């Protein structure tokens, strides 16, 4: 039986959320009426010319920098020629040799096992318009007619091409997720898969373990979530192995992921590689990125998700909590504010990723709407640390604060949750319980520890659950010593 | 009394300012000239009577306030590959029949801002591909000196209009000689500026790395005045030059004493008509007598210029013209599928020369052929630039005939595209180098057809180029006018 290994490379398209389009002044579409964010340039009217958008160049450079690429000093724009009705010029302005960013890497982690994925290149191009095929099939073949919306045409598009360094569907998913986090951390795109502002094309092939020859790949398109990317790759690996083990061969082709069927289906066959007749765009001069510009981009690099996770972990948050915090930007901000004001990181992290997230989901509100402040978290952490609140009571107080009932102390008071940690009060209660249960004391003195729990329970009941259970237990042990 | 249509721009400007006549009078004279000559020439595709009238009236109002802008009220024509808002713009192609652009190109905007009166849009070889203005989907333009001959091309309509007086000045575009060669064949002055000096925004692209808009006029100072109105950086064109502008008209009266002038060896022998060559050398001698230091300069790479050009220009055009697909504007021929619709639209919409060049360019860019064709052509282009650079280390300007022959007969070269391509042998090299060049009329051949003299200069060398051109104009003292402009014309 041959053992197989998958080889996976991912091409990721990211729409930059710049103010204007890549080569004209049209606003980047915000879901307007079709064909309202258009002009002679992005409609490719005769005579119109492209002018590069500096903000978009800054955006791609920040991505390249975050992926530790070499930023190329003199970068070239090319024309990629192919006819398609939603491509107004019938060529796409893209990059070929000398893209803006080359040779980077991205560290990803699956269940604590790190992998380094090489980044071949990051280049700049422009998006196409949107075709809506009207007819029964909803596809171009068999459509009665096609409606075109050019609002998206010319939106800056960054393509990130990975090396075929990925070996499993899980790694692929982790790579996609981490790239999405990086892009979001840079603030250049919301990188939403379901809305198409981030899109994956996945190249999958398999080969016998130990072979250094690549198998024939298929390109899987239409994966609109990280989960469907993982499923599609898993499906494709199984399919390819099955074909090969049955003596068949894999064809170089594009396959579309069908989410409802959980399968890929054959699309276009690629006869060799398509001839896009790339040539340098004579309308655009080489883009010169000088040392100062590269330096500026690097200096502006924000703390990246991996570094932030490591920092949170160093503060004491467990790895899963750190990841959850970093992924939800607003929670991370609150975490940082609370911790820097002196709250204990581990507890605050758990509250935020546990109780707070649960509350937001349950009540369907945003963190902003709850008005939860760093001050409240600090106060709550202090009350817990001082033994004023039990762990359970703290969560209840937190819910009260989230519901807008006041500060933690106000909530604790109004809900009567303050823990009794005053030693003399507790001693009085303990002595009263012991007086009522001399037989239990006997048993304990005879070496049977079981009644201790019973006695603690009696004290807790007598105090309405507000006594600090640890103090109660300690006291009972001491008082029942012979 | 002189017909106003026969005035130079400079004369018309002073007449307007002194109140001898109005801009409306001037426009009327030019339109009258068009009315009697158009049936013979077909220089125009569109006459924008109402737009021109409105502009002329506005000019008269401004003139009354003492507005000194030199082009104020001057009737000019634009080649029909220059986009004009609301006025049909076709590039002489069926594929753009009826297209009324929603915007003005930068040159058109600047001319309107200068107060010029845009009379109409002139005929050209379809998408500026040709050297005779016979490749127009709307019929050829003829040469006012002899209507059996062509006016050159592709800016033949603009050149013919200026020569005959149905415009006082005009603009064309020059990709391989398309301004200079028709200027030469019609006895007018035509200048191709340094690449990047005039914005290409709104010029329907043929070959983006070569195309430049430039003026056609009856005199060198007029051409300089027209050019000055349109030069300068444009944020809408990424290849537009953003630096100090040459002082185009500063040295028109300076003369050539002390200037070093190089006669291009490769363009002054074989392949040049003897009468043209003789006239050229006569002017060279006169320049020498006027104090210029004349030397012979060889540009060896020029031998490959034509071949390189006919790879680079078609390659660029194959992509530039891809946008004409029937989807968004212009002609649409329906088909069963989108692909079929696009294919049918293009097959029907483009003429044979345009189709030939798209196919040539597509082939030259194809995988496996790219390096042998397009790549090699780019290397030739570099060699040629080096040749020019070293030549300009030794001389201030280079000179040659503009066209190897005077105007040829209609139909003489249409059967064989290669013979037609040779019409640009003297002009193509400067486009590949990105340098400026100008054609100045210097006389007539035995058949009574004009001969043009070309002056080439290094990039941004417009000042010295116009300086020499003005001297050539004085030395040649060319005052003849085409018969069609001076005689009472009878209907054809």
What descriptive keywords fit this protein?
heterodimer; A: 482 residues; alpha+beta; Arc Repressor Mutant, subunit A; 3 domains; three-stranded antiparallel beta sheet; 16 helices; B: 492 residues; eleven-stranded mixed beta sheet
SSE blueprint and pairings:
The complex is a heterodimer of chains A (482) and B (492).
Chain A: E1 4-15, H1 54-66, E2 70-71, E3 74-75, E4 78-81, E5 91-94, E6 101-110, E7 113-126, E8 130-134, E9 145-149, E10 156-162, H2 169-186, E11 198-208, E12 218-223, H3 226-245, E13 253-258, E14 263-269, E15 279-280, E16 287-288, H4 291-299, H5 305-315, H6 319-327, H7 329-340, H8 345-363, H9 367-370, H10 374-385, H11 391-402, H12 408-414, H13 423-436, H14 438-445, H15 450-462, H16 469-480
Parallel strand pairs in A: 12-13
Antiparallel strand pairs in A: 1-10, 1-11, 2-6, 3-16, 4-5, 4-15, 6-7, 7-10, 8-9, 11-12, 13-14
Chain B: H1 9-18, H2 23-41, E1 44-47, H3 49-64, E2 75-79, H4 106-113, E3 117-122, H5 156-164, E4 169-174, H6 180-186, E5 189-192, E6 212-217, H7 220-230, E7 260-264, H8 274-289, E8 293-297, H9 305-320, H10 338-349, H11 352-364, H12 371-392, E9 397-401, H13 417-421, H14 428-433, E10 437-444, E11 450-456, H15 462-476, H16 483-486
Parallel strand pairs in B: 2-3, 2-4, 7-8, 7-9
Antiparallel strand pairs in B: 1-3, 4-6, 5-6, 5-10, 9-11, 10-11
């Amino acid at each position: 039986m041959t053992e197989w290994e998958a080889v996976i490379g991912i091409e990721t398209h990211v729409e930059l959320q710049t103010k204007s389009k890549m080569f004209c002044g049209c606003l980047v579409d915000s879901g307007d009426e079709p064909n309202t964010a258009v002009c002679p340039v992005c409609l490719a009217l005769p005579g119109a010319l492209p002018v590069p958008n500096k903000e978009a160049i800054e955006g791609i450079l920040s991505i390249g920098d975050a992926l530790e690429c070499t930023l190329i000093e003199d970068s070239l724009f090319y024309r990629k020629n192919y006819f398609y009705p939603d491509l107004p010029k019938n060529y796409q302005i893209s990059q070929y040799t000398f893209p803006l960013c080359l040779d980077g890497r991205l560290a990803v982690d699956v269940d604590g096992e790190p992998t380094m994925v090489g980044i071949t290149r990051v280049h700049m191009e422009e998006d196409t318009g949107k075709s809506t095929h009207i007819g029964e099939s909803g596809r171009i073949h068999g459509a009665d007619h096609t409606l075109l919306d050019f609002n998206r045409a010319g939106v800056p598009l960054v393509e990130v091409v990975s090396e075929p360094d990925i070996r499993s569907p899980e790694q692929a998913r982790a790579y996609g997720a981490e790239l999405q986090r990086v892009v979001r951390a840079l603030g250049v795109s919301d990188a939403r898969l379901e809305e198409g502002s981030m899109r994956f094309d996945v190249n999958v092939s398999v080969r016998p373990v130990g072979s250094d020859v690549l198998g024939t790949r298929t390109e899987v398109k239409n994966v609109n979530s990280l989960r469907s990317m993982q499923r599609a790759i898993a499906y494709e690996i199984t399919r390819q192995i099955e074909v090969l083990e049955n003596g068949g061969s894999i064809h170089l082709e594009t396959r579309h992921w069908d989410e409802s069927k959980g399968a890929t289906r054959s699309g276009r066959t690629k006869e060799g590689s398509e001839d896009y007749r790339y040539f340098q765009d004579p309308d655009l001069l080489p883009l010169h990125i000088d040392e100062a510009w590269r330096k500026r981009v690097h200096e502006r690099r924000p703390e990246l998700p991996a570094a932030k996770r490591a920092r949170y972990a160093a503060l004491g948050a467990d790895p899963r909590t750190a990841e959850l915090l970093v992924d939800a930007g607003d929670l991370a901000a609150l975490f940082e504010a609370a911790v820097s004001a002196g709250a204990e990181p581990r507890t605050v992290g758990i509250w935020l990723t546990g109780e707070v997230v649960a509350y937001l989901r349950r009540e369907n509100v945003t963190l902003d709407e709850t008005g939860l402040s760093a001050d409240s978290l600090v106060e709550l952490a202090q009350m817990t640390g001082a033994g004023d609140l039990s762990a359970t009571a703290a969560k209840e107080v937190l819910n009260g604060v989230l519901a807008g009932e006041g500060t933690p102390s106000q909530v604790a008071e109004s809900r009567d949750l303050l823990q009794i940690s005053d030693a003399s009060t507790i001693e009085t209660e303990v002595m009263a319980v012991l007086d009522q249960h001399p037989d239990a004391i006997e048993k304990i003195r005879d070496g049977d520890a079981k009644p201790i729990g019973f006695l603690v329970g009696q004290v807790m009941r007598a105090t309405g659950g507000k006594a600090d259970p640890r103090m109660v237990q300690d006291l009972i042990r001491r008082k029942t010593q012979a | 009394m002189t017909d106003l249509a026969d005035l130079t721009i400079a004369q018309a400007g002073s007449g307007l300012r002194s109140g001898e006549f109005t801009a409306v009078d001037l426009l009327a004279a030019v339109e009258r000239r068009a009315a009697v000559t158009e049936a013979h020439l077909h220089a125009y595709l569109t006459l924008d009577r109402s737009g021109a009238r409105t502009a002329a009236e506005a000019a008269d109002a401004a003139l009354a306030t003492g507005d000194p802008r030199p082009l104020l009220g001057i009737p000019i024509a634009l080649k029909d590959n220059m986009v004009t808002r609301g006025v049909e713009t076709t590039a002489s192609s069926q594929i753009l029949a009826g297209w009324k652009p929603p915007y003005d190109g930068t040159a058109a905007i600047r001319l309107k801002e200068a107060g010029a009166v845009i009379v109409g849009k002139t005929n050209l070889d379809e998408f500026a591909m040709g050297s005779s203005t016979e490749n127009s989907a709307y019929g050829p333009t003829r040469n006012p000196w002899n209507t059996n001959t062509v006016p050159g091309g592709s800016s033949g309509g603009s050149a013919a209009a200026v020569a005959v007086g149905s415009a006082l000045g005009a603009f064309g575009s020059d990709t391989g000689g398309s301004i200079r060669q028709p200027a030469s064949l019609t006895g007018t002055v035509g200048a191709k500026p340094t690449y990047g000096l005039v914005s290409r925004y709104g010029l329907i692209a043929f070959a983006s790395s070569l195309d430049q808009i430039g003026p056609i006029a009856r005199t060198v100072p007029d051409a300089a005045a027209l050019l000055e109105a349109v030069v300068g950086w444009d944020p809408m064109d990424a290849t537009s030059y953003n630096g100090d502008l040459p002082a185009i008209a500063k040295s028109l009266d300076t003369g050539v004493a002390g200037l070093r002038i190089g006669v291009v060896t490769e363009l002054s022998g074989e392949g040049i008509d003897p009468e043209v060559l003789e006239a050229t050398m006569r002017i060279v001698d006169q320049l020498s007598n006027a104090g210029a230091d004349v030397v012979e300069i060889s540009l060896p790479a020029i031998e490959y210029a034509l071949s390189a050009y006919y790879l680079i220009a078609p390659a660029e055009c194959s992509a530039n013209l891809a946008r004409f697909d029937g989807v968004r504007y212009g002609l649409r021929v329906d088909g069963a599928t989108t692909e079929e619709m696009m294919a049918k639209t293009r097959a029907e919409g483009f003429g044979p020369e345009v189709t030939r060049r798209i196919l040539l360019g597509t082939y030259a860019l194809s995988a496996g052929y790219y390096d042998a064709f397009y790549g090699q052509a780019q290397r030739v282009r570099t060699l040629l630039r080096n040749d020019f650079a070293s030549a300009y280390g030794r001389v201030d300007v280079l000179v040659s005939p503009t066209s190897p022959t005077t105007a040829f007969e209609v139909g003489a070269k249409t059967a064989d595209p290669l013979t037609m391509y040779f019409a640009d042998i003297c002009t193509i090299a400067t486009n590949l180098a990105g340098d400026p060049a100008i054609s100045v009329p210097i006389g007539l051949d035995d058949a009574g057809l004009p001969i043009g003299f070309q002056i080439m200069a290094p990039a941004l060398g417009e000042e010295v180029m116009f300086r020499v051109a003005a001297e050539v104009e004085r030395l040649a003292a060319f005052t003849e006018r085409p018969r069609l402009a001076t005689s009472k014309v009878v209907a054809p």
